[in-house]
Records
---
Amino acid sequence: MELLNQISAFYAGVPMANLILAPALLTLIAYFCFKKRDELSLHAFRNTAATVIVVGLNLAAAFLFANDISAALQRGFAALHVPTLPADFWDGTPLWLIAILGIIARDFADYWNHRLMHMTWMWPCHAAHHSDTHVNAFTHFRVHFLESLVMSASYIILLSWLQMPAAIPIVFMFAHLHNLYVHMDLPFRHGPFKLLIASPVFHRCHHADVEAAYGKNLAAVIPAWDAMFGTYYSDEACDAPMGALKTGLADTNPFLIYVYPFQEWARLVKSRILAPLRARRHGGTPPSQRRSVSD
């Protein structure tokens, strides 16, 4: 698939060192310019180290399975027979306008993907991102390989349908830079534009380890989606603990973070499928089930 190859080539052209240098620079800016002294604390270092190792595990998985996954995605995409807009649909349209429309379309898909990720059976994919108890620019990279796969597949289908290959680098780079920004511990709320573009305060509320915040403030770029679909929580300064320790997620052990999806799915199968089946077979009542952040 040409679009998949373009996306792969785009990311292959970004030096891996930049993935570390950019959040490191933003961390120093937060420390020196905004007096966020905990950015260089031991707690921050341990969480950042775990994030870097998770990234390394993702890269290892990509190295081992990238070709097989790419081939599977292409077969799946072809099997869907998704009709697309005419190839010349955007002819004569300024690239900046195509890029803005691409950002809006991608963010709409991202909102519903994110909402799906906070539901019970998909939460294990997304849990790694919420395991960070020191949310900063590095947190953007704490994403499990399985989540990246699901999200990327949906974007490929969407952007292919929209026939926007020229805008792909702009859309993806904007999303990357904005994601780094909103994970910073900064006091910005964006005033009258708070529903048009997500702020660090808005997204920090999403990472709060309090029940009221679970599954809320899901928009990556445009908080208006949350306001429209009933998942807007708050954009007030959030001083609640970050992460998801209350659900039993590790925050500084990258290997526990990485195997969590498989452990949690095994638990869900046992408690929500096998246990009720056994209970019905014996005429009993299924045991109570532990509530998770995704319920």
Note: Confidence is low (pLDDT under 50) at residues 287-295.
---
Amino acid sequence: MTISKKMENKKITFTLDGMLDTITVPQLQEILIPAFDEANHVELDFSKVTYISSAGLRVLLTGHKTSVSKEASMTLSGVSQGIMEIIKMTGFDKILKIV
């Protein structure tokens, strides 16, 4: 997975490219959680994500919980229909903010 970062004011956008699975989750987690120390909003651009596993969903939940504890926000954008079906099937659409 390739992750690019763009910071604008107090907003960080991470553009993810590839699969979010057991192998790539640590890469995202190591940059996502600390991002809430420098930003009050984190956007995860999912337009190039081709697959998400349960480990990927878990890191999104961790990111959401961290954003709440830091009084920040996290959104997902560009979510494909296939990824959205997984998010809805697991009920994460009721937890995560998806734009």
Note: The chain has a mean pLDDT of 97.
---
Amino acid sequence: MVRSFAAALAVASVSAQTQIAFVGSGGCDGADVGCVGGGDAEHTIQAIEISRDGQMKPRPDLAIPTGGQPVWLTKFQDAEGSKQCMFVSRADLDDIQSYVLAPSGEATVVGAYKSGGAAPVQADVLYALSEGANDVLLVANYHGPDDATTSDGAAASSMIINEDCSLELADVKPHSGSSLIPDRQGGAHVHSFTAAPYGEHRNEAYACDLGQDKIFSYAVQGDGKLTLSSIIDTTPGLGPRHLVHTPATSDGPHFVHVVTEMGMTVNTYEQTMCGDTACLKELQVVSLVPEGQSGEGSKAAEIVIAPDGNTLYATNRGLLNTVTVFGIEKDGTLTQKQLISAPVYPRGMTLAFNGGVLLVAGQSKTELWSYQVKADGTLASASVIADGLPPHPAAFMMFESNSVLV
């Protein structure tokens, strides 16, 4: 069934009085030399209850054992709004583990499914956009390390989402190549694979390959098959990591914003046409490093966009632990509005309550910070929690607690 899923989520977020943030662990960041691993405790998704004012409390009754490293959590809601699934990227097991979530937030495991590559990280859902098409899970298989003798396993893959939340591998597009920085780009590293609706090409998805400094544009067919549309080169050494796009409901031009890990920039592109296929036209590059400061010892992490498409948030981690707030102009370009402190190594970040609360996970010290989002999109610190989290939190999935699904 074709539906406006963004609108359904917005209604659910407005109606809920509390929300649950499921939180997964990414282990210690390789650059965080003082970090101590959390052992088996990292193989459990913990739950935190969030209120509208940003206050937080642990919900240990909703903890979910995963049996592997839950580095990314992806939400899916079916067409009727009667079922919610959670797909967990287990990077250490090269698979996606699937759960059905009850209205209370309790999880029932469905199964584990090989991701089509090595070390799956970020994943995203492309909802069916025509009758007879399938809902598809897009999976970024990062691969690694850079001293490996082969890059086999770096890939963008697609998986059919079945009615019972099980998955079927539909297609795999291997990536191979390298770029400027040997110890980070010695091989291909697909860091994200994100659906980005665009006009008649609303089935387009973009794979950011940090290892090759490229963004691959794929058309996703109704059966989940992937067709390469175009390849966009970024400046060597930037390392494109994650991206967000203009809300699907927006009129006029559509834009994509990409955070680059080593470059510590946000690159803005307009979605356009290159012949008969969709591609990206670069409009702007803005830095996440404050003017007059050095970016040495830091790297960018996450990027999120407000549901109304007016504000963008991006994090830096390392020596610079910050969230940068940008206003998004009508032409898609960004104007910095605020730079605010974040927990050490702020890897995971998400919005709750339809953009009313921002959550940022500090990977190094195992902490979660919340911020209230003001009318202009800027942030005010709300609360900090260190209890009830998995060690080294790095992933989020929001769930409307005890609410009627839309």
Note: The longest helix spans residues 5-15.
---
Amino acid sequence: MSVNIHTIKDIRFYLLKELDKIYREPETSSLINIIIKTVTGVSKLHQLYNSDEPVSKLQVERIIEISNELKTGKPVQYILGETDFYGCKIRLNSETLIPRQETEELVHLIISENRNYRGNIIDLGSGSGCIAIALAANIPGSSVTGIDISESAVSMAGENALLNGVNVSFLKSDIFTLNNKTVGKAGIIVSNPPYVRDSEKKSMNRNVLDFEPHRALFVPDSNPMMFYSAILKASETILLPGGRLYFEINEVMGSSMIELLGSAGYRGINVIKDINNKDRIVKGIKDV
């Protein structure tokens, strides 16, 4: 296909035309800003004030490739191989979920409540390492460990830690067999485990179902809290008395999670709503 792209402005017009029927505004504009920044290396502000800046043939070819991939429904984060998360650059692969805004809210809560914390933090089901890396970057007195069952995810998380200049240990292990001999003890445990019930697949977008790793998303309807129960069991030996536990949860699980943490001997249990007013975070303190 012959295209007439010579400047940053031409890229914007081309992508607007190509993506117009696939995405809505302002999503299209946001996507275009991200794509241009990734391919050309220039900021959004630079794009606005230097729109006539020329682009190379290789850059044009990459723009066309990205546009064609977007038309298949593939998320832009996987196409570009990276995303931004709480001020950190996070690389992704097919074994790692795309970090969501709700998870940034979880991280923000932990940082705001533990900024001066000095001790161990364990992130269970760490995936790309986004939570662990953001915590290590913003709670400098802490020592952070991330655990995931996927070798590929652990490898990617390690690369992300180096990319962001933070010291995080990532280990391959199964949440269902985890104990303090594997990871030691910690004063904070955080997890964003799989929590979408299989029956909810029918209401999800195809770009999620077709491209994101299902084992990092879905749980059976017959046992939707299986990961939380396993983490609470592991926390019996891993989490120190008085330690804090933070979970991201399915919006329908709020009251069930209060009961689950209460039965496991936690106090100060709170369910916190996300920016969309949905139950999204539960926290509790391990009883002494």
Note: The radius of gyration is 21 Å.
